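Tokenised fold entry reproduced for everyone:
>
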Amino acid sequence: MTVTAVCPGSFDPVTYGHLDVIRRAASRFDRLVVACLRNAGKQPLFDADERIALLEAVLDDLPNVEVAAFDGLLVDFCRERGVGIIVKGLRAVSDFEYELQMAQMNTTLGDVETLFLTASPLYSFLSSSLVKEVARFGGDVADFVPPIVAERLARFLPPARNRAD
């Protein structure tokens, strides 16, 4: 029997924290679908096609990982694909409170279980929002995102400003 899980997110942009959770989940399941949300309620920096292309580029070494976009309810996406497990990363207790409610709703709506992976201490502070904020003000994001993502961020956001050392 093949066990498949879904690892959802906006991935705007994908960070090393996301990649840590994805890689750890991929090592524990036969197949992992990284589901990139097209959220009409948000104004992402990168459109869904760009986020998917970035995810595919940084995950191309994982043969059991597939990247796909989805709209609407995650449980519907899971049902369409016959997947009964969602994997989510948790950075802090505040993440848990919100994610627990979503997990319980997903179980109620779609009989889908959620498994939580705690963030590696190296990445527990990291979020896409923080990365975008640092990049917007010309900070170096090389420690937080893969090189291809840093390059794309530089195209969308202002270049690093000159600093006096």
